[in-house]
Amino acid sequence: MNASLLCLISALLAGLASTLLELTWLRSAAAALPGSVPAAALVVPVFMLAWSAGSMVAGRLADRRESQTQEHLGLAARWLGASALAVLAVPWLMELLPLSGSVNAVWMRLALGGVPVVPAAFGLGGAFPLFTRLRRAEGLLPARATGGVAVAVGLGGALGAWWWVPLFQGGGAPGTLAAAALAAGALLAWALQVAQRVMPVEPPCPAVAVEAEAEAEQVSRGFDLGLAAFLGGALLVGGQLAILRVIAQQAGDSVITTSRVLVGVHLGMAAGALWMACPLAWFAARGLVALLLGLAGMALLMPAITQSFPGAFISWSGWELPLVTTVILGVGAGSLVTAASRSRTREAGRFGSWVGDLAAWSTLGGVAGGYGYGMWLVPSPAWGTGPALQLMTTLALAAGAFLALRGLGGPRHRASSVFVLLLLAAGATLAWRMPIMQMPWRADAEDARLVRQLEGPYGVVSLVTTQDGELRLKLDNRFGLGGSAGAALEQRMGRLAACFHPDAERALVLGLGRGQTLAGFASTTAAQVECVERNAQILELGLDLPDTDGVGPLAEPPTIVHADARTWVAEHPDTYDLIVGDLYFPWVTGAGDLLARESFSALRRALKPEGVVVQWLPLHQIPWPAFGAVTQAFLDVFPTARLFVATPLANRPLVALVGGMVRGLPRGDRINELLASSPSPLGPHTVADVYDLYVTDSWGLGTSFMDVEPATRARPVSEIESLGRHDDEAWIGATNMRLLSELTTPLDTSSLDRPPIDPREDKYLGVELRARSGALQGLLLARAAMLQWSRLPVSGEDQRGPLEVLSSASLIEAWRVAPGHADVRRALVEWARSLAVQGDALKGAHLLSAALEVMNDAALAGVLGKLFLQMEMVEEAADLLGQVYAVQPADRAVLLDYGTALLLAGRDEGAARMLRRLLDQTDGKGLPDLQAVGLGLLEKDADAGPIADQLLDQLPVGSPWAEVLGRLRVRVP
C-alpha cells in the first residue's frame, strides 16, 4: 500500500479544513473590525503562529521516532484526530456567549472565533513535517518529500477557499465540515497504519536515495535559508493583504474577495512546490530560493505595471489582475520551504526537525508581514499601499541578491547564481523606474479635482469635485458615499423617515456618508437626533452637514459619534422613538449582519414600546432573492412591517422597510403639521405624498416571500449575493422595480392610526388610496421599462419597440386611474421628451395626446405644443399653446413657446405681444437669439438687421426660422 501517496490526501484534507476555518473567523473579524484588511492582519498572523508552533513541535516528535512508516502514520493519526476533536468542541462553546452586540461581547466572540482555527492551524503545521518525514522514510528525495506535501496542502487550501463561498451562502457549517475533514485525515492515517502492520512493506533504502540525490548540496548550517523562509512568509502574508487592498477597489471590501485571493495564493503555492520538487540539478538551493524571492517581489509590482500601462499586452478587468498576481506570489513565496529542503544542512535522521524549523520560520515571517502591513505600512500617512508594495519588492530583491551572492562560493553553481543575480538586478531596475502605484487607482474620468483624501484601514476616502461642479464623497474612488448629485433624493429619504413618527422625541440615524439623509431627517423631525458612523476616516475629513433646500439653520444640530451600529444599539436599550438605517453598501463585510434577523432584534430592543424602525435598502444593488431574505428577517421581528419607496421617479429604486407602527400609519394631521413646519421643495409636502409611496403591508410581503429563508448572521444573503453586482446596477434596478410593481397593493384605511369614522369619508378615502396605488404601480412598471429601454442601442428597434409600448401604456393607465397625479404628470413629460430626443417626437406627441384625452392638463398641453413646434406643426402648436396661455398667462415657458409658435405661424402682432411681455418679466434677458432678433425686426429695431443677416447665413435654406427672418428682414432698412 502506497502510504506516501495516501498521506498526501490527509495533508490535502488538513489544508482544506484549516482554510475553511480561517475564512470563517476572518469573516467574523472583518465584521467587528474596520474591514477585511485589518481583520486579515489579525487573523492570518494568529493562524501562522499556530502553524509555526505545530511545525516545530511535530518536526521534533517525528525525528524521535524510528524511521518506520507505521510509527509516523500513528503519530499523524493522533495529531490530526486531536485537532479534529478540538475543532468539533467549539460550536457548543460559542453558544455559551449570548448574542449581544455590546463591545465586550463582540470582542469576546472575536476571540472565541479563533478557538477552532488555532487547533486546525496547529494540526496543519504539525502534519507538514510529519508527512514529509514519513515520505522521506519511504525513500523519496528531500525536495520531492517536502514538495509533495506542500502541493497537497496548497490544493487543499485552494479547494477550501473556493468551497467556502457556496458553503457560507447556503448557511452551511464550515466548522463541522472542517472537523470532519481533519477526522477523515486521521482515520486514513490510522487505517494505513493498521494495514501496514498486517502487510508490512519494506521501504526503499533511504541511504541509497540520499546518495542518488544529485542536486543535494553539502553546506554549513548557516542562518540564511531560515532568514529566506522568514522573508518568504512575510511576503506571502503581506502581499496577500496588499493585493486584497487593491482588489477591494475593484469589487468592494468583502471577505469573499479574500477567499478568491486565497484561492490564487494556494494554487500558486501548489504549482511552486510542484516545480521545486522537479530535478533542477544545475540550480543550487540558495539560487532557487533567491529566484523565488525575486519572483514573489516582482509579483507585487503587477498593480503598478497595470496602472502605468493599462493598454499593454492584457486589458486587466474583473479578477484577472488579482488572480495572476496572487498565483505568482504563491509560486514564489509559497514554495521557498520546498526549495530550501534541497540543501542537506541536516542529516537524514533530523529531516523532520529541519523541515519543521523552516516552516516555522516561514510562518513567523507571515506574522511579521501581516502585522507590519496591516498595522504599520498602510495606516501610516508616510506609506500607504503603493509605497508599501515598492518597499516589499525592494526587500525581496535585496534578500534574493544576498542569497545569490552566498551561492557564488561553489564553482558548480556559480553560473546559476550569476544568472539569478542578473534577473534580480533587472527586477530592481524595473521596481525603481516604475511609478509608485497611487491609491486609489481607479479615478473616474469626470473627476476634476481632488479636494481631500485619507487612506487607512477603512480604505481610501476621498472628496472630489467633478467637471460639472458636483461634490462627491467616495470610498476607494469608485463607490459613492454621497454628494451634491444625489442630495435631493437622499434628503427626501430623511424627510420621509421623519414622517413615520412625527411625535418622536429621540431619534438615531445609523450611517453618515456625506450626511444628506441625516440633514434631511434632522431638518424635518423635532426629535433630538444622534448619528453613528463606523468609518472613522469619514469623520476625520471634518465635513460640515450639508444645507437643506428651503430650511434654515438647524435649531439643534445632530450629535455625530464614531461607533459601530451593532454595539451602539445594544448599549442603549429602550432609548429611541425612531431609528433610521441609512443606505449601506450591501456587499461590504458586516453589512449582511446589519440586515440580519439578529440585528433587527437588537434594533427592536433599542426602541421604546411604540418606537419605529426605518431601514432603507438599495434595490439597485441587492438582487431580489436577497431582498426577500432581508424582508423575511425583518418580518420575524416586526410582524406589522410595511414597505415604502422613496420615489417612483428615480432610476435607483430605494425602498424603506418600516416596522413598529403597531397602531398603523401616523395621523394625517400630525404628518401635515410636521412637513408644514419645515417646508422643502424636495417633498413630501403633505400626507397624501406619503400615501403615494406606500407599496404593501406585512401580508403582501409575507405571501410574496413565504418560501424564502430569512437572512441571519450565519447566512448574510444580501452580503454574499450583492458582491460584484455594482456594475449591473441598472439591470438589477430595472428588474427589481418591475417586481416591486407586482407587490403594490392599496393602503387600507384600517391601517391608519386614525381611520375615518364616517362611512362616506371612508369610502371616499378608500377610492383615493386605490387610485394612488394604481398610479404607483404604473409608475414603477413604466420606470422599469424606461431603464431597460435606455440601455439598448438606438438601432435595436425590435427590442426597444415593446418597451416603448409598455412604458407608454403603463403611464396612460396610471394617469387614467389617478388623473392629475403630480408624479404621473412628471413621468409623462419626461418620457415624451426622451422619445423626442431619440428622434421620435411623433410618438411623444401621441402619448401626450392620449393623456389629454383622459384629462385636460395645461402642463401636458404645453409640452405637446412644444413637440408640435419641433415637428414644424406651427398652426397646431399655436392653437394649443393659446389654450395653455389662457390657463397659465404668467408662465414664462408658456410665453416663450406661445410667442415662438405665433411668430412661426405668421401671427406677428400676437407674437410681438407675447415676446415683449416675456422680455419685460425677465429684465430683457429672457429671449433666445432667434426670438430676440424676430422681436427686434417686428419692432423695426435697426440693430436687429445685421444680426438677422448673420443668422440667415447660418440657417438652412427653407427652414421655418429662415423663412420667418427673411420675411421680417425686409421691414428693417
Q: Care to describe what's here?
A:
Helix content is 62%, strand content 8%. It has 973 residues and is α/β, with parallel strands linked by helices. The strands form 2 sheets. An 8-stranded mixed β-sheet has the order 7-6-5-8-9-11-10-12, with helices on both faces. A hairpin with an 8-residue loop joins strand 10 (642-645) and strand 11 (654-659). Helix 1 packs antiparallel against helix 6.
- Secondary structure: helix percent: 55-70%
Summing up helix and strand content along with how strands pair, one would put the structural category as alpha/beta
**Span from first to last CA?**
113 Å
Please work out how many helical segments DSSP would assign. Answer: 41
Oligomeric assembly: single chain
Number of strands: 12
Please list the strands of the largest sheet in the order they lie side by side: 7-6-5-8-9-11-10-12
What is the 3D shape?
A: elongated
Largest sheet: 8 strands, mixed
Instruction: Report strand %.
Output: 5-15%
Indicate the radius of gyration in whole angstroms: 35 Å
Integer average pLDDT: 78
The poorly predicted ranges are: 95-101, 201-222, 310-317
Short description:
By secondary structure, the chain is of the alpha/beta class. It is 62% helix and 8% strand.
List its salient traits.
single chain, elongated, 973 residues
